[in-house]
Amino acid sequence: MLASTSGIRGVFNADLSPNEIAEYARRFVRLVGGREVLLGRDTRSTGPVASRAVAGAIMGAGANVVDYGVISTPAIFRESRTRARPAVIVTSSHNEPEWNGLKFVVDGRGISQEGFDQLLRRGEKGDGASTPGGLTPAEGFSYNRELVKMAGESSAAGVKVVLDLNGGAAIGHAPEILRALGCEVSTIGDVRGFFSRTIDPTNDPLEVLSRAVKREEADVGFAFDCDGDRLALVDSSGRTRTGDYMLTLATKEMLQGSPTKDMVVSVDTTQAIDEIVKEAGGRVYRAKVGEANVVALMEQNQARFGGEGSSGGVIDATFNSCRDSMVAAAFIVAALRRKGTKVYDQVRSYHIAREKMVMPRKKGLEAVKRLQKDNPEADSLDGLKVRTSSSSWVLIRVSNTEDGVRVSSEAPSFKEAERLAHAWALKVKRAGA
Description:
Elements: E1 2-4, E2 7-11, H1 18-32, E3 36-41, H2 47-60, E4 64-70, H3 73-83, E5 87-90, E6 99-106, E7 109-110, H4 113-121, E8 135-137, H5 143-151, E9 160-164, H6 174-180, E10 184-188, H7 207-215, E11 220-224, E12 231-234, E13 240-241, H8 243-256, E14 263-266, H9 272-280, E15 284-287, H10 291-301, E16 305-308, E17 313-316, H11 325-339, E18 351-358, H12 361-374, E19 384-389, E20 392-398, E21 404-411, H13 414-432
Parallel strand pairs: 3-4, 3-5, 4-8, 9-10, 9-11, 14-15, 14-16
Antiparallel strand pairs: 1-2, 2-6, 5-6, 6-7, 11-12, 12-13, 16-17, 18-21, 19-20, 20-21
């Protein structure tokens, strides 16, 4: 089982049982002290069972449940924000179908590290409330309508889009929203719970979507993960682009119409963001990896925009305090409407390579310390980030949830990025020996 502010996750009925899911839900109700909790889920086959366990636990703790059924993570974040209610989402996000878990939302933003630590420490099971809560089906949601209003109805009139929904929660949002923006939309993978590719679109070649974009002569293809917060992009030539590229392209468009130009991104996000933000007259702040860390630093610096390139995420604090695939998609299709497919050439694309090695956490931390002594100028905000040239860097991070070390690198060419990642992975192995 994995546990972080991003959620509780595990292989359902193997290392994460319905009883454990119910217990975490009970602890969450005690933590937030709410009398009403919003509940949603993604499209995994274990979702209905897990949702029933969560609903029963919440009601047993004395709170009422408003059940949205299948709904995307960004949509229920928005509901939590507008209704000022805590929420639980039954999802394992971008993990494969056999996984499931919980995400916790407090008044429209992910649970804080402090709150999550409290949730994990509450080991004693309660006896339940003297008066159980009740369950009410939600009467729809406002997310689709509000996003169209923010982006502008028909603001992307005539743009041809292919959506790879891969059986996920975005089925209930992406087609309707993009059609309201004026796009000509066709879809693949629009049967809920039927997954025909890797759940995480940023870690898949997206060959079927690429062929569909070329066949239909579309302007863009978008691919989503199971709970609808991650976004991957295929351009008009059928080329699959990275999450970092997608974030950079969306940022370019977001900043043009915003009076505030500052941006918060995770430490492993592409340096192309720095170029775009500097050109716009803003400043880039770097946060530790993780959506909660990015959002916290956005609030601290009153930055409107944020994101993480590795997860294909865009955050617009005026609309949602989470990674929101449809916010990014709305900005991109509006740019295609104004500028055509030449929009793809307006931002620089670097290349990122990643290597992961199994290493005991203690040895990994010792290796980072040794390498830090050899590179005193390196950034130690989150792991060790070494700038190897004016256009390349390497980031070494020890996993917080498993015995492993991740080495990421960025350079102007993929060959150079791969060389750097491999060379520094060897340095980590030697330092940890």
